[in-house]
Amino acid sequence: MKLYYDVKDKPKFPQLVVYAVQQLLAIMAATLVVPIIVGNGMQPSAALFGAGIGTLVYVLFTKAKSPVFLGSSFAFIGSMCAAFAGAVSAQAGYAGLIIGAAFAALVYVVIALVVKFVGVGWIDKIMPKQVIGPTVAIIGLSLAGNAIGDLQKGDVMREVLVDGKAVSEIAANPLIAVLCGIVALAVTMLCSTYGKKSIKLIPFIVGILSGYALAAIFTVIGIKTGNDSLQIIDFSVFSSMSVFELPDFTIRTAIKGIKEIDGAYIGSVAVAYLPVALVVFAEHIADHKNISSIIEKDLLKDPGLDRTLAGDGIGSFVGAIFGGCPNTTYGESVACVAITRNASVYTIITAACGAMLISFFSPFVAFVDSIPACVMGGVCMALYGFIAVSGLKMIQSVDLEDNKNLFTVSVILIAGIGGLTLSFGKITITAVACALILGILTNLMLSKGKKDSAEADSAEAK
Hints:
This protein has helices at 13-38, 44-61, 77-85, 90-118, 121-126, 129-141, 144-151, 174-194, 197-200, 203-225, 250-257, 263-295, 300-323, 331-340, 345-358, 362-370, 373-394, 403-418, 431-461; strands at residues 70-72, 157-162, 165-170, 327-329, 422-424, 427-429. With 462 residues, it is mostly helical. α6 packs across α12. The longest helix is centred in the middle third of the chain and has 33 residues, at 263-295.
């Protein structure tokens, strides 16, 4: 793939700002929704600041050679909820978030040190293309349900009576929502395929704004006519809004709760975070194999897996200090790089600085929050689909006539698409992680069997 901007290329400042905004739009919805899901008073704007500063730490560790943005990790949602559930107060829960992120970072740093002294050869042995390729595909395919679910809904809620009880439901007509999302998707694809270079570099901005404009038209008509089914956008997010607002950083509340934690609570937080960190490590490998294939540079060798791991781990911890959410490399960011063919790390740096700045600027955060789910769902069909296709492209060079490879790929795809998950108490191993683990075990088992079989055949011939 020919890149418009390589990793070290620096676009002119006006274009750089626009490209950075596009990266932010690609990752912001998911980054903001994690603290909303966890609840307990966590602020999305603080998570956005944490993602920005975490990304800068990652860029520093990777010597500005890896053009990836770090955002709030969905994998740790269960761990974060467990930190609050086991705390004696919300303040202690906030302290637990930082302690948990420290445990997760410790896992990354320890593995980074192992890689530093042992090398990455063992990674290639246990995670060859027949393992990594379908796993990357599963990362995209596992998000397909999210994209389609969002595509069919707006953001405005209404209350209806069900058996005499008031129940909230989405007001928008699903067909209207799908239309807005498909328009956003169509414009994104047309801009990326037929647009001039300046448009090809910002297809998601144009697509999102087009879908938003159509949704706004339907919403205004719905408000004027009193037709709830046409109301897609929830404009109430702009009410009672100040221009600038200081995010409620996690560390501010955590300091007050430190005195309320004890050894037992710290142990429970460790149990909730450490296994998940090992799972996310596997996804870290898959993401970096993917971005390496896009920029045609092996990031596991230069700057090195030890640096990408350390940057991801320490960046995640620093981000959690401010936003409470451990961060992770975002597939949406990788897909944005691939589709726009803009791998400039300066875009990532600018996006990270922009995330930190706009976390104080309430109108922009409110605008992003007001982008209806259907519009983001339409755009994410392209983003998630591209992640899946990137993984499938890795399999092209794999010999699927070899049963070892065929079974490995098959197990990963079926386990991932089927949604195989395993839960141990409050710890859940995601479908992607389960698929990867099964794939690794299958590949190792069949590789050993093939070697033993070959040795037996040789002995029999003698």
